[in-house]
User: What shape does this take?
Amino acid sequence: MTTDTLSHIHRLVPGTDPNRRPVLLLHGTGGDETDLLPLGRAVAPGAALLSPRGAVLEHGRPRFFRRLAEGIFDETDVRRRAHDLADFVLAARERYRLDTPLALGFSNGANVAAAVLHLRPEALAGAVLLRAMVPLTEPPVARLDGLPVLLLSGSADPIVPAENAARLSARLAGAGATLEHHVLPAGHGLTQADLDLTTAWLARH
Assistant: This one.
C-alpha cells in the first residue's frame, strides 16, 4: 500500500512488457486497491497496474463517489471525485513514469471511469467499463474522437437497467469514442465471456 504525497491510497505493480499500456484498475463498491490486481494480471499480462482505493466510505466500504440510493448518484460528488481521480492519474504518471493508462473499472469503478471520460478525457487512453451506468444526468460535451472504449453489460443485471447501459453507450458513441458494446447473458457479476472479451480488447490497445 502506498499513500506518499499522491491523493489516493494505491498499489502499483510495475510492468514487465514495455509494449503494453499501463492499466488503471478501479474497483467496485466495497473493494480496495488489491481487489482487481488478480484480474489485471489475468487480462493484461506484463502491463503496469495502477490500482487506487476509492476515497469515499459507505458504511465502511470504499467507493469512488457518494450515492444517495442504489443507482442514484450525488452528481456534485461524482464531478469532484472524477476530477480528483484524474489529478491522481496525472500525478502518478509523473511519479512512476507511466504512459497514459487504459482504465479497467467494475461497477462503481466503471462509473467513475465513465465520469472521467466525460470530464477529463485526457487522463485516459481508453477504458474497459464492466457493468457501468450513466454517471451524470447532464454531462458536459466531451470530445472522445477515436478514444477506444469497451462497454460490457449484463442482460439480467439487477443493478444496471438495460436502458441505462444503452444510454451510456449512445453518449460515448455520440462523443466520438470508438465504442464496442456487448450485452452478455449475465447479471452484475463477471463471467468468462467478460474476461475473454477484455483480454482480447486490451491486447489490441
Notes: The chain has a mean pLDDT of 95.
